[in-house]
Amino acid sequence: MREKKASKLTPEQQKIISIIVTVLQVVVVILAITLSAIVLANPNINNNEVGSGSVKLLPVLTDSMKGPDGFEAGDLVIAGDPKNYDVNNLEVGTVITFVTTINGVDRLNTHRIIKSEIVDATGERAYYTQGDAITSQDPGFVLASDVLAVYKFHLKGIGKAIAWLQEPTHFLLVIVLPLIALFIYNIIILIRMIMTAKMAKVEEEKEKLIAEKESLSLDEEEIKRRAIEEFLKSRDAAPETDPAPGIDPAPEIDVATDTDPE
């Protein structure tokens, strides 16, 4: 039993598939650009950096701020640049980001201000902080000049993905390699389009030459036909030839046969 051949796509189906592929490519590119901007503008928080932009994106790594008005591990904190705030007069209850020492290692910490005071003659303020889920105050205090970011709001569950993408290997696998594959795919499509256009031009030239050849062949046949018609017309129009003058035509001879009776 013979297998049925796969039916070819109709032009409408091909157009729909082309539109879907194009939309997917646009979505992938936009997503890759957005994630790249986020990752590049906000260095890995393990390096105790918050980025130089006016908006700081800070993945949350622990549940120290878990609570009704707080956030938890896996969330993404959106914070503002302290330059845009009067950091020497922040109110109690404001959540700030600063560097603190945890188990002998310097880490970024985002906790809530529970009280503040002026610490020296310069008038600089010191802030005392505490996590919403922690029952004890953070050790030491944070000077106004050491505030790295001021909390605005947070997004649930996004921080884990950002923190994961900040790893070089993950960034390469999720962002760089797909963009390279997409670039190669579009190069292949471009080459195919160029080759198709060239083949179509060759076919067009071929059809043109065939048409010209057929036209010449028809012209030759027409010339022959017209020549034959002209020849026949000229022959039919030629006058009959008269005898030469002074020459009488030969008389007709009647032969009579007399039969004598015996």
Would you write up a description of this structure?
This protein is an alpha+beta fold. The protein folds into 2 domains: 42-166, Umud Fragment, subunit A; 172-235. It is built from 3 helices and 7 strands. The chain has helices spanning 11-41, 158-165, 168-237; strands at residues 55-59, 76-80, 95-102, 105-118, 125-130, 142-143, 149-155. It has a 7-stranded antiparallel beta sheet, covered by helices on one side. Strand 4 and strand 5 (125-130) form a beta hairpin. Helix 1 (11-41) packs antiparallel against helix 3. The longest helix is centred in the C-terminal third of the chain and has 70 residues, at 168-237. The protein is rod-shaped and about 140 Å long. The termini are far apart. The mean pLDDT is 82.
Features:
seven-stranded antiparallel beta sheet, alpha+beta, Umud Fragment, subunit A, rod-shaped
Strand content: 15-25%
Average pLDDT number: 82
Number of strand elements:
7
Largest sheet: spatial strand order? 1-2-7-3-4-5-6
| Order of helix and strand elements from N to C terminus | HEEEEEEEHH
Main sheet specs: 7 strands, antiparallel
CATH uppermost class of the largest domain:
Mainly Beta
Structural class: alpha+beta
- Count of helix runs: 3
**Rg value:** 49 Å
* Low-pLDDT windows of residues: none
Q: Supply the CATH architecture of the largest domain.
A: Ribbon
N- and C-termini, Cα separation: 105 Å
Q: How many domains comprise the coordinates?
A: 2
Q: Which topology of the largest domain does CATH recognise? A: Umud Fragment, subunit A
- Fraction of residues in helices? 40-55%
Shape: rod-shaped
